[in-house]
Amino acid sequence: MVVSMRLLAPVRRIVYRAPRRSAPASIAVALIAMLVQLVPVALAQQGSVSGTVTIRKRLTRPAIAATVPSYQRGVGVPLGVSPKGVSPKGVSPKGAEITGGLGTAGDWLAEESARIVIWVESMAGGEPDVSRSSPGISAAIQQVGRRFWPEVVAIPVGGTVSFPNLDPIFHNVFSLSKPKAFDLGNYPMGSSKQVTFQKPGIVYVNCHLHPNMTATIVVVPGSRFTKLGKDGTFSISGITPGDYELVLWHRAIGVVRRSLKISEGEDFRVDLLLPNAESSKSVRNGGSD
Fold this sequence. Notes:
By secondary structure, this protein is of the alpha+beta class. It folds into 2 domains: about 5-45; about 45-65 and about 70-275, Sandwich (Immunoglobulin-like). Helix content is about 15%, strand content about 35%. The protein is built from 3 helices and 17 strands. It has helices at about 5-15, 25-45, 110-115, and strands at about 45-55, 115-120, 140, 140-145, 150, 150-155, 160-165, 170-175, 180-185, 190-195, 200-205, 215-220, 225, 235-240, 240-250, 255-260, 265-275. Strands 13-2-15-16 form a 4-stranded antiparallel β-sheet. Strands 14-1-17 form a 3-stranded mixed β-sheet. Strands 3-7-10 form a 3-stranded mixed β-sheet, with no helix packed on it. Helix 1 packs antiparallel against helix 2. The longest helix has 20 residues, at about 25-45.
C-alpha cells in the first residue's frame, strides 16, 4: 500500500514535536493510532460524477452591436466571430491554456454548451478547500475582433487568467465583481496582462473602450470542475466518498444544484434539462456582482 505524502504529514509532526525524553514506546503508540485513522482514507476508492445536459432552447439573447460612437477607439476593427470552435485568426497565446470557446457561427447549441461550467462542492460548506487550489493553472481571454474570446473560462482558486490584446487597437480590461475587482488600464496590440484569483465566485469582465465586450471568469472553490462538452456530456473524477452538491452555472440562468452521495468507486449519474424551474440567479461563495 502506498500512502501519499499529504497523509503522512500528521505522522511527521508527531515525530518532530515529541520531546527527546519521551519513551520510544509512547511515540510508537501515537504513530500506530494515527496510521489506523489514515489507512481507511488511503484505501478508499475515489468516485466520479458524469452525465448529460440537454438544452431545450437558446439561453442567451442574441447580441446586437450598437452604433460605435466616433470617439470610441477601434472603429475600423470588425466584430469577430469564432468559426468551428477555434480562436479568431487562429491565434492562441504561448503557455496559456484556452478553456472553452464558441462553436460554429450560428450554431446556438454549441455556443450555449461552451458557456456552461460544472463543478462539485462539499455539503459541509465553509471556506473552500485551499489545499486543492492550483496556482499553476492558467487560462487566457483574448481581446480580438473587438470582443473577448472565449466568453467563459473556468479556473480553480489560485488560478491566473491572462488578457492578451491581439487587435491593432487599444483595449481595456476591468471588473467590478465582488470576488475580484480590478482595472488593467488601456494597452496596445501585442501586450498582455494577467490577474490571479484568490476567492471563488463569478467575475464579470468588460472593456471601458468597447461596451459590447464582455466575458465571465468562473473561479471554482476546488479542483473538481469541467466545461460542458460540445456533445452535452460532462465527467468529473477523483471524488472522495461523501456528500456533495453538483453545481451547474450559466450566465443567463444562474445556477442549478443537485445533491450527490458518492460511494467508493461509484460513477454517480446526473442528467439535467435546461432551462428548468430550479434555475437560480444566486451564486454561493462570492456572489455574482
